[in-house]
Specification:
The chain is built from seven helices and no strands. With 164 residues, it is an all-alpha fold. It has two domains: 80 residues, Rna Polymerase Sigma Factor, Chain: A; 68 residues, Orthogonal Bundle (Arc Repressor Mutant, subunit A). Helix 4 crosses helix 7. The longest helix is centred in the middle third of the chain and has 29 residues. It starts with a helix and ends with a helix.
Length: 164
């Protein structure tokens, strides 16, 4: 079990990195902050159930799982909105234009990745496979998957010029 002062220290030392991680995965700062807050709330509520040998990795796993849940909810909500007659909800025009421009830059950046890195990136970030699963699918080592992903992310950051 973790005490309050240890929890506060954990929060202070990991919060900013977790928000950056969540933001990179979903591209929405407010949702990223909400997901990280939910992870800390869950950790606090269930502090008696968790072993606290590796608090950082536990938090990253919680955030990752919450991001997956958020993605699934968003996907379901988008299907509902798309099925509405006459599109009852509309986004501001500037938001739509910025989103399209970002998506175009991202698509071009992904298309320009080296084939191996592109394949690993798409399997992990789009299809949701874990590195071990990707290694098995491509018949390569997990370390090779990690290196290809590292290269893909580095190239994408440079190509898109996206700052947090």
């Amino acid at each position: 079990m973790i005490d309050e002062s240890s929890f506060v220290a954990l929060f202070d030392s990991t919060h900013a990195d977790l928000v950056k991680y969540a933001f990179f995965r979903i591209g929405d700062m407010e949702k990223a902050k909400d997901v990280v807050q939910e992870a800390f709330t869950t950790l606090w509520k269930k502090r008696k159930e968790f072993r606290f040998d590796s608090n950082r990795s536990l938090l990253y796993r919680l955030v990752s799982n919450l991001l997956i849940d958020q993605y699934r909810k968003d996907k379901v909500n988008q299907h509902v909105i798309n099925d509405l007659p006459g599109k009852a909800f509309s986004e501001p025009a500037s938001y739509s234009i910025e989103e399209k421009e970002f998506k175009q830059r991202l698509d071009l950046a992904i298309a320009s990745l080296p084939a191996g890195s592109q394949e690993v990136f798409l399997l992990n970030r789009i299809e949701g496979f874990k590195y071990r699963e990707i290694a098995d699918i491509l018949n390569i080592s997990q370390k090779t998957v990690e290196k290809r992903m590292q290269l893909a992310l580095s190239l994408l950051r440079k190509s898109i010029h996206y700052k947090i």
